[in-house]
Write a structure and sequence with these properties.
single chain, alpha/beta, 15-stranded mixed β-sheet, three-stranded parallel β-sheet, 6 helices
Length: 674
């Protein structure tokens, strides 16, 4: 019985929705009729009740209005039951409308399909109205179309330059400051903050820069023109930005090789489109490289040297490429850079002190430019530095043509004649802090305006091989500590204000090959150990100066054969078998030429004129004229001696049958005698 009841309940649920109204017999007279497929529960006045149905035609599916109810007389009377018969006759009201009648629950199943309660004034449900459905569909289509158009417009805008708009108070007064452009998505991506925090120096921020500031120009390129479109977390963001900064700071459009990124047409000039360039190598072969500020990886740009494994920039080689401008301090943030070779260009301004913070810098070559100012003391903190070449900044004429048409000449301060002459690099570079360069091997600072003295701390540079600081304004003695530099090969101290004699233990510098101290105010005897320098190749001691202070407290110096090195040439000079140049002229040396000098088979220049050396030139020396002691170029004399009559009438100081040039000791006039 329970299974049968469940089946009937399921059957009932599959029909139409049941009316939620429950009416009593007294309410039926005023109640509206239910629609087709609905059932009405009617209480029987007692404890029970039944669901009653009215026999009525079903919907035909074409019309949404219910079918008409048959007239009373045509109504079949097979439905019987009890209930209130007041105002009813055979199941009809006095108006002839069908009403629900009670049915005997015992004779029917517990659940029967619903009877129809019909209201002739009732309207069909809204969702079944055909016009309503048409209008609803049309509205949905229009809304969907509007949404689609909006999405497409917003998406296209996001792919271009996305802008952030801010509310503008139109009631505020205008200001003299220009209105800032809306920020793009790239400008809000963290790149600006990343570069400001990790690259910019001296407290600089982009907001305070003008549009023509190279730092701002490099940022604009990174944000909007660089086809690589780096993000703030890309590992090469710093090095790519700094290289771009170098391009804008050093006028890459004027570079001899691989700097011109522009394409010039008849009607327009387009930036950042050139990709490839050819460079004539020293071998005479054209090599292919990438233009700076091109879309290629920065490690492929001409002169950029990177590790093959990690793409980290290790070196910059831009020698003789017409770089014009000042080195930006941000170059110091290339933390893994090991060498910089910017020699032979038109750089001017100061060496940034921040370069002293570069932890891996091994070589800095800036010679042959127009740099000025003091060599920063901070540079001594670059303790891994092995080569520093800042030579030839003073009186070094070289011209470059800038991209804006200016001619930059390195002989002038900042390349401009209006600024006067450039005096080159200055400062007491060889002072007490010099020993911080504990890895230094080559120190080349000649042709500048370096001042101060040579500190005894120079003796701590145990790896030093080359010391070239000639043509400066260095004063004082050569410190004895210099003899500790047993790896030193070249010492160029000429044309300074160095005075005094050589350290007595100079012979300990066993690797010394080239010693040039001429045109200084030096004096004294040559130490005995001096002749033990068996690796010596070039010994320039000529033209010693005699300096006096005039009435205006200015020093006046002139060459003098009466002041300078004294003594005689020791026979031990024969130990210097690799000696190729021996220049002793304009010194008060005495004695005779030792025959042992003939052991120096590689001797190619010998100048002993304007001295007090006397006697006859030994045959062993004359035989050297058949070896190397002759003019290889046809332009210079190779063997000078005071072999002309002294003061035109007296006997010559020295008798020589093999000299290339003979000089008058008194008048200093030399005549070729070959």
């Amino acid at each position: 019985m329970a299974d049968e009841d469940n089946k009937r309940k399921k059957k009932r649920k599959s029909g139409k929705k049941k009316s939620s109204s429950r009416r009593s017999n007294t309410e039926e007279e005023n109640a509206g009729l239910v629609m087709t497929g609905e059932a009405e529960y009617v209480p029987d006045g007692g404890d029970g009740g039944a669901v009653v149905v009215v026999d009525q035609e079903p919907f035909n599916g074409e019309d949404m209005s219910p079918a008409p109810v048959p007239e009373p007389e045509a109504m079949t009377a097979d439905v019987g039951g009890g209930g209130d018969e007041e105002g009813q006759q055979n199941g009809f009201t006095e108006d002839g409308l069908a009403v629900a009648m009670a049915v005997d629950a015992g004779e029917e199943d517990d659940y029967v399909y619903a009877a129809i309660e019909y209201d002739p004034d009732a309207k069909p449900p809204l969702h079944r109205n055909r016009r309503f459905r048409v209008y609803t569909c049309l509205a949905i289509v229009l809304v969907a179309a509007a949404v689609a158009v909006t999405v497409i417009y917003v998406t296209k805008g996001a792919k271009g330059v996305d802008e952030q708009f801010t509310d503008i108070n139109v009631a505020t007064l205008p200001t003299l400051e220009p209105t800032r452009s809306p920020l793009t998505n790239r400008e809000q991506s963290g790149i600006i903050e990343q570069i400001e925090a990790g690259v910019l120096q001296r407290g600089a921020v982009f907001a305070n820069m003008t549009v023509d500031d190279p730092r701002k120009m490099a940022l604009e390129w990174i944000l909007h023109y660089d086809q690589m479109q780096l993000n703030s977390d890309d590992v090469n963001l710093y090095q790519r930005y700094i290289l771009a900064l170098l391009a804008f700071s050093l006028d890459s459009l004027a570079w001899y090789y691989c700097g011109n990124h522009r394409m010039v047409n008849a009607n327009e000039t387009v930036d950042f489109v050139q990709e490839d360039c050819d460079v004539l190598a020293s071998t005479g072969v054209l090599e292919s490289h990438k233009v700076w500020l091109s879309s290629a990886d920065e490690c492929e740009w001409y002169g950029a040297k990177c590790s093959s494994t990690d793409g980290v920039l290790r070196g910059l080689e831009m020698m003789g490429n017409d770089l014009i401008g000042e080195l930006p301090p941000e170059i110091s943030q290339l933390r893994f850079l090991q060498y910089i070779a910017f020699n032979g260009n038109c750089l001017y301004g100061n060496i940034p002190p921040e370069m002293g913070t570069m932890p891996n810098l091994l070589s800095l070559e800036l010679q042959g430019n127009g740099l000025s100012g003091a060599i920063p003391e901070e540079l001594n903190n670059a303790d891994k530095l092995q080569l520093l070449n800042g030579a030839m900044q003073y009186q070094y004429p070289y011209q470059c043509a800038a991209s804006d048409g200016r001619i930059v000449n390195t002989i002038f301060a900042k390349g401009n004649p209006e600024n006067g002459y450039n005096w080159g690099l200055m400062g007491s570079t060889l002072g007490d802090n010099v020993n911080k360069w504990k890895s230094m091997k080559g120190l080349h600072l000649f042709d500048n305006s370096i001042t101060g003295t040579i500190s005894p701390s120079v003796g701590d540079l145990k790896y030093l091989v080359f010391l070239r600081v000639h043509n400066n304004a260095i004063q004082g003695l050569i410190p004895n500590e210099i003899v500790k530099l047993n790896k030193l090969r070249e010492v160029y101290l000429f044309q300074n204000g160095v005075f005094g004699d050589f350290p007595p233990d100079i012979g300990l510098m066993e690797d010394l090959e080239d010693l040039r101290v001429h045109e200084n105010e030096m004096w004294g005897f040559l130490p005995d150990t001096f002749w033990k320098l068996t690796k010596m190749k070039k010994l320039w001691l000529q033209d010693t100066l005699e300096c006096e202070q005039d009435e205006a407290d200015e020093w006046k110096c002139m060459r003098s054969r009466d002041k300078g090195f004294q003594g005689s040439i020791s026979p031990e000079v024969g130990n210097m078998k690799k000696l190729s140049q021996l220049l002793l002229n304009n010194n008060p040396l005495t004695g005779t030429l030792p025959a042992e000098l003939g052991n120096c088979k590689e001797l190619s220049r010998l100048h002993i004129h304007q001295t007090f050396i006397e006697g006859v030139v030994p045959t062993e020396i004359c035989l050297l004229r058949d070896e190397e002691l002759f003019d290889h170029t046809g332009q210079i004399g190779v063997f000078y001696a005071d072999c002309r009559p002294n003061n035109k009438t007296e006997d010559p100081y020295i008798s020589c049958d093999c000299c290339s040039d003979c000089c008058d000791h008194t008048h200093g006039v030399c005549v070729a005698d070959d």
